[in-house]
Design brief:
The complex is a heteropentamer, with 1 copy of chain A (about 280 residues), 2 copies of chain B (about 260 residues) and 2 copies of chain C (about 375 residues).
Chain A: E1 2-6, H1 14-30, E2 33-37, H2 44-56, E3 61-65, H3 69-81, E4 86-90, H4 96-99, E5 104-106, H5 109-122, E6 128-132, H6 138-151, E7 155-159, H7 164-177, E8 183-186, H8 189-203, E9 209-213, H9 217-225, E10 230-233, H10 236-253, E11 261-262, E12 266-268, H11 270-281
Parallel strand pairs in A: 1-2, 1-3, 3-4, 4-5, 5-11, 6-7, 6-8, 8-9, 9-10
Antiparallel strand pairs in A: 10-12
Helix pairs in contact in A: 1-10, 2-3, 5-6, 7-8, 8-9, 9-11
Chain B: E1 6-15, E2 18-28, E3 33-38, H1 44-51, E4 59-64, E5 67-68, H2 74-80, E6 82-85, H3 97-101, E7 108-109, E8 115-116, H4 118-131, H5 148-162, E9 166-170, H6 178-193, E10 197-201, H7 205-211, E11 214-219, E12 222-228, H8 234-241, H9 251-254
Parallel strand pairs in B: 3-10, 3-11, 6-9, 9-10
Antiparallel strand pairs in B: 1-2, 1-4, 4-5, 7-8, 11-12
Helix pairs in contact in B: 5-6
Chain C: H1 18-24, H2 26-44, H3 52-77, H4 85-102, H5 107-132, H6 136-159, E1 164-166, H7 168-172, H8 178-181, E2 184-185, H9 187-195, E3 212-213, H10 214-232, H11 234-244, H12 246-251, H13 256-282, E4 284-286, H14 293-303, H15 315-334, H16 342-365
Classes of the chains: A alpha/beta (about 280), B alpha/beta (about 260), C mainly alpha (about 375).
Bound molecules: adenosine-5'-triphosphate (2 copies) and magnesium ion (2 copies).
One adenosine-5'-triphosphate sits at the interface of chains E and B.
Chain lengths: ~280, ~260, ~375, ~375, ~260
């Protein structure tokens, strides 16, 4: 069988490379050919076109993420119209069914943000910054928005670029200019979480709570050492693996689970962190 | 004597700390060829650039046809009827001969949409170049691939074609062959007889004497004075042009005038 | 003694074939690249790529990029850059979205207003470049940031906190101008062709290609107009002259400032046009729209033979440049190469295409 | 009759003050921008920004950008661009990481090997540009994609699937060369100053600033060397000449090809240096390192007064350009402005800084 | 008669479909000044560019000091001892006079790190320019802001300074004032007497006659022949240079030779 995955995150994004690894592993396990496609930057127009390109190839199934239902709707409906089974993953839980997707595997970014916010507020956070390395990327914006809601206390979004040195300097600047900030949430573990830990260490503050979305080995180490609070894991490997398996089974036997599969959220805290470091270093978590 | 078309009075021009012109007065009358002479670096090109709207004078006044005038851009000067051959020719190397020839004043055709009439333009270009003694291979050859003299001829032909009232020529014959030079000198004589005022800059005393009616000599940014034709001979003029400094010992074989 | 030259037969010219003459035109240089890329995908990609649906599929992004690329080419020929067009796509999209969704204006008002906004920003860009004499690279770079930031702030303001504005499709649904900017043209024709069996149909019976996407028609129209302006009007001559040497052009009487400001306004309007087309098409806009499009536009223009130093290039070149870029980016998804290798291939194909263009042109014109 | 000129007192020159002479130098133009930006933040930012710790904080990213910016400036003066340096940071980082972590090589071998790899890629860039005569913009753009893709593929290969390679810090921990490329210099001096109470200390008693980050020292060293080469060596003269007019330079006997290829190798090595510093500092490398750094480097060079057309610019200008860019990006975090406005401010401040530079220089030199 | 330093045989040069040179044979002997004359577009500049390594000939052989030679680049030619003043001067406008003067052959000082010896360079530049009759304001003035004649003088002074065996001058006097022209002609006479072979291109018959030992005339890419000094007079030469085509009616007042 031939299954095409169209995602909105790039293959070199640490988060999405795990999704891709999951999809590839599913392909190995089921014997299906899996093609992973993504636009080179967060671009809904380009992503719509990639879905159309996938439809043209008449695969046995398409897996998509739906960060913008308006923009991707027509292309997904075309896939459904063409009789191709579609499963959505990661983003778009709320709209998947109405677009004609068979089911959704994933977790709402917003809800994950809420969970993180609630947890950090519980741990005593009173004022937070949410470090966003790609402002305007809707899924990242939703993480911050959910966090702000769950946290309940003031949250400032700090936009940065894709450079760990710069992130470290900006986190440090934010902490220095407003000493009341005691909570840092990063939207990516290697790009934001690790430099944030370094910045806090350089400032010599041990009262700052640091949490981050996604996993990276370095950040997990910090969590297990107690230098960071926790990492939010969507178990995105599943978001790549399960839809492919489902579609392969669907193509072969017509099987399909009866409802959406929530893949997370799963908070990785100090006690669990040590166990996942190695898996993270292999691109599985 | 007729009134001057353009009269420049006490023109000064500074570039940062460099003083290029330090009070120059000059005028052109219709139907005369006024030669502007002087040593290298005397300020001739700077002066005529002020006249044709490229530079704004630091000090001094310009009177055009009796009214004080400030040219905001070379286009203003062109519209007033002044056409110039600059020493650097003001050509775009990558563009074709025709496109350079008509740059800024393209002939158009078409009723609603004004199209660039390339056929007419090509024809005129080939004709004018031929009348100056250059047989172009094709009007769409890039100017950058022309020989030095061919390029200079394009600039001259263009200025003559558009020079309505004043024609300024900054060392127009410097790169020209003998045939082309005599064509240019003949052209100057012709347009002058049509009532156009010509400003002619040259380092060749013989060329200046051949077509000039008046001679103004610049030296180190200042006027040394103006002489009418017949009141000065070639040797005197040459002496003035050299800025009064002695010349290398080769004159004998050159017969007095270089 | 001297061989007297005859004007019609000049012994200093070798005869050349028509192909040679054609290949010398900068417009046609980029065709070589298109052919090479086509051949490459012919052998490596799924045959679906060269079905009618496949062609429309890669032509749509090429068209959107191409509209920007042609405007960028004109501006580059005129000797300047505009790095703010990508952000302008987001900004104009935001303005347009707010006008139709929040203010409920009909397209006949919303489109001219959006264009006017864009043109104004373009004029400001141009005026700053001319007044200060700073390189346009740095001035428009500032606007890259400013407009991108303004889109974010504006979107958050008008949506109450989100970076995505939705609901445009519903807002313009009944408008009589909508078909001009979105959807497909010649739908009837394609349905008829599908009935005749000339065009493949989906399971539901509708043709796989419902028509020609209007963005492709805009793309072609923009190419034709730009080529006409460049080659056949005084304005075109002024653009070449301004970019070739602004002092020489100005000394020859070309209104250099006017040319440059108009070009900046033009690129901004091209960005607004792309914004309008994509916003109506996707029904939404977000703060990252058009990200990096400024560079892709310049890339398309350069592949198409424009010189970065100005004064040389063509609109048709940029047309093919955009098609090459669109074919390579979409085409790789039709192949079975691993996505991890995507960028390596993209880079390699671009390099191959331009080297090939160049080699062919040199061979043909006998340069060097 | 003519006033005989005396060489020492020429009546055709007005006297000018020392300030005027100084301000005419392209190196110093960018200082105006630094001053303006400093004043701006002095009034708007938290005082923490201008403590010693705050200065080191914004100087660190400025230094890493600056090393690239100066190399980019030299290349731009030489008339070319290198869009692949950002990707080269990722690629060289990957090579370096693999050499020290997977192969366990000591730095004394790993660093020269990494540099050699980078230089080789630079030479390939240069050779293609020279051989084909294509604009370097498009050639190095291809390498932007190729190297970025190759880093991803390589990282996945060597880590068994992840995009991040870690463990560098442990691998180089004991190496005697490590202090040259990571951490802080003059640690003893700063501790002593802290004991004297001249430098603020943390609660634990260690100084807030443990020393000068070595990247800043590298930055200064690169600036000094580049300035010396540009202004005081034959090579510098060749770079200016090559960028000013490559035909004229070549006709005058400048080895244009050699100059260009060396410059491409140099920028690649600068990228490798930044890669080594950041990889050792962060202890890891990933596939997105150096993203967009090629443009930031060009921005720094242009703010610093380099012309995109080549033949004009300075290393000190790029030095200040990088500092301006670093101050603005980091500085806004110290202010109380809503961070949504970040990009608007970034763009606005950049524009202000360069306009200010320019205005001052024009006023001083009396141009126009 | 001494052997020629450089001998070019049957040189052809095509640019795409343009035939610029169609078989030209030419040589230069030590201590002579060989004038290359001809109409605009005859191919003189193209020819000397082939001689100085800028263009590779499409056909034809070059013999340098008796050995066949292919210059790969102008640098090769310079290292062999050929210095050239190109018609477009080959100067970088944004760079200072000194830097242009020594471009490609900078004097250095310092034992370990070879520094560009700017003091020496400045001094030599000012001296050489002065000896050509130009008082520069400062050696660090940008060449782009020099007057046309000043710029040409820089190029000539540079070539003379570095011209070890052959000195090629493509219309060196075109933009020069009378004083500077006679200086250049005197300089040619001087270097010639030192055994350097000089190739001198000019449209001015008088200048050519003043310094030339042999005269070769090109026309439309081909040689019309070579004449020795004394075997040809100015009027004949002028006729040959015009390519045999008739000239405009102004000759009378110019006294035969333009
Ligand atoms: N933009 C400028 N900046 C500084 N100095 C300048 C500038 N333009 C001209 N100069 C100086 O002003 C003086 C006059 O220059 P100009 O070009 O007017 O001389 P010219 O009389 O035309 O000489 P030539 O006969 O050599 O063409 C020269 O010494 C030149 O160096
Ligand atoms: N790169 C090129 N491409 C096409 N044609 C060229 C090129 N270079 C020169 N030519 C043509 O070759 C011919 C000879 O040019 P060249 O510059 O050698 O003439 P020249 O004898 O130096 O003339 P002048 O006295 O005007 O300087 C000209 O007709 C010119 O148009
Ligand atoms: Mg002059
Ligand atoms: Mg010539």
């Amino acid at each position: 069988q031939n299954i095409i995955v169209v995602a909105h995150g790039q293959a070199n994004d640490p988060f999405w490379s795990v999704v891709k690894n999951g999809a590839a592993m599913a392909g190995e396990h089921t014997g299906a050919t899996v093609d992973f496609r993504a636009p080179e930057i967060f671009d809904m127009v380009a992503m719509g076109q990639l879905i159309e390109a996938a439809v043209n190839q008449q695969p046995d199934g398409i897996v998509v993420s739906i960060p913008d239902a308006d923009a991707l709707g027509p292309s997904i409906r075309r896939a459904v119209e063409a009789g191709i089974p579609v499963i959505s993953m990661n983003a778009g839980a709320d709209v998947a069914a109405e677009m004609g997707a068979l089911l959704h595997v994933g977790q709402s970014e917003f809800d994950a943000g809420v969970t993180a916010g609630e947890r950090l507020a519980e741990m005593g956070g009173t004022k937070a910054i949410c470090v966003n390395q790609e402002v305007g990327n809707v899924s990242l914006d939703q993480r911050c928005a959910g966090f702000a809601e769950g946290f309940g206390n003031p949250v400032q979004v700090i936009p940065t670029q894709n450079d760990p040195t710069e992130v470290q300097s900006r986190v440090r600047a934010a902490l220095e200019s407003d000493p009341e900030v005691d909570t840092v949430l990063g939207l990516g573990a290697s790009l934001v979480g690790e430099p944030a830990v370094a910045a806090v260490e350089a400032l010599g503050r041990d009262d700052v709570l640091i949490a981050s979305f996604d996993l990276s080995a370095g950040f997990l180490e910090a969590v297990s050492d107690g230098r960071a609070a926790f990492a939010i894991d969507q178990q995105q490997y599943l978001q790549g693996y399960l839809p492919v398996v489902f579609l392969a089974l669907h193509a072969e036997y017509g099987l399909m689970p009866g409802g959406d599969v929530p893949s997370g959220p799963n908070l990785v805290t100090q006690d669990a962190a040590g166990l996942v470091i190695d898996l993270s270093a292999q691109g599985i978590r | 004597m007729t009134d001057p078309i353009i009269h420049m009075d006490g023109i000064k021009k500074h570039f940062g700390n460099v003083i290029a012109l330090n009070g120059v007065t000059f005028d052109v009358r219709p139907g005369e060829c006024h030669c502007l002479l002087g040593d290298n670096g005397a300020g001739k090109s700077t002066f005529i650039k002020t006249m044709s709207g490229v530079h704004k004078p630091t000090e001094g006044t310009i009177t055009f046809e009796g009214r004080p005038m400030q040219f905001g851009s070379p286009r203003d000067a062109m519209e007033a009827g002044i056409a110039t051959v600059f020493q650097d020719l003001a050509m775009i190397p990558l563009m074709s001969v025709t496109r350079n020839f008509f740059m800024g004043r393209e002939p158009t055709k078409g009723r609603f949409v004004k199209r660039f009439d390339l056929e007419t333009a090509n024809r005129i270009t080939m004709e004018k170049m031929k009348s100056m003694g250059i047989n172009l291979r094709a009007p769409d050859q890039a100017v950058g691939t022309l020989s030095g003299g061919e390029r200079q001829t394009v600039a001259i032909a263009r200025a003559v074609h558009f020079g309505a009232k004043v024609l300024i020529l900054d060392e127009p014959t410097s790169a020209l062959g003998v045939r082309q030079t005599s064509n240019v000198l003949a052209t100057i004589a012709r347009v002058r007889s049509q009532g156009v005022g010509v400003v002619f800059i040259s380092h060749n005393v013989r060329h200046a004497m051949a077509v000039g009616d008046r001679f103004t000599v610049l030296n180190r940014g200042q006027t040394l004075g103006t002489a009418d034709k017949g009141h000065i001979d070639a040797a005197e003029l040459q002496d003035l042009m050299a800025g009064g400094q002695e010349m290398a010992k080769l004159e004998g074989s050159l017969g007095g005038t270089v | 003694m001297a061989t007297q030259a005859d004007a019609s037969v000049d012994e200093r010219i070798r005869t050349e074939t028509i192909t040679t003459r054609l290949m010398k035109r900068p417009e046609l240089g980029a065709i070589g690249g298109v052919i090479l890329v086509t051949i490459f995908f012919f052998f490596t990609a799924s045959p679906a790529m060269f079905t009618l649906a496949g062609i429309m599929n890669f032509m749509t992004p090429a068209a959107q990029l191409g509209i920007l690329g042609i405007a960028a080419a004109l501006l580059m020929i005129g000797g300047e850059f505009d790095l703010s067009i990508g952000s302008m796509v987001a900004f104009a999209g935001m303005i347009f979205g707010v006008l139709v969704v929040n203010l409920g204006l009909p397209l006949i008002l919303a489109i001219p207003l959006t264009m006017a906004f864009a043109a104004m920003v373009g004029a400001v860009n141009g005026a700053i470049v001319i007044r200060t004499g700073l390189p346009s690279f740095i001035v428009t770079l500032a606007f890259l940031f400013i407009l991108r930031g303004a889109s974010l702030v504006g979107l958050k303001m008008f949506t109450g906190g989100a970076t995505q504005l939705r609901g445009v499709r519903d807002a313009v649904a009944g408008d009589w101008l909508t078909p001009l900017f979105s959807g497909h043209a010649f739908g009837g024709l394609f349905r008829w062709m599908a009935e005749q069996g000339w065009v493949a149909t989906l399971a539901s019976g509708t043709p796989t290609v419902p028509g020609i996407p209007v963005s492709i028609l805009w793309f072609i129209a923009v190419t034709l107009v730009a080529t006409f302006v460049l080659l056949r009007t005084p304005a075109g001559n002024w653009i070449f002259a301004t970019g070739g040497d602004r002092h020489a052009a100005s000394n020859s009487g070309v209104p250099v400032r006017r040319v440059k400001i108009s070009l900046f306004m033009l690129t901004a309007c091209a960005a607004a046009l792309v914004a309008i087309i994509t916003v109506i098409d996707t029904g939404s806009t977000d703060a990252r729209r058009g990200f990096m499009k400024e560079f892709e536009a310049i890339i398309a223009a350069v592949i198409g033979g424009c010189l970065l130093t100005g004064g040389y290039g063509s609109a048709i070149g940029a047309f093919f440049g955009a098609i090459i870029f669109g074919m390579v980016t979409i085409g790789l998804t039709y192949t079975t190469f691993d996505q991890d290798w995507f960028q390596v291939f993209l880079g390699g194909m671009l390099l191959l295409a331009v080297v090939f263009n160049n080699a062919i042109r040199k061979r043909v014109t006998g340069e060097r």
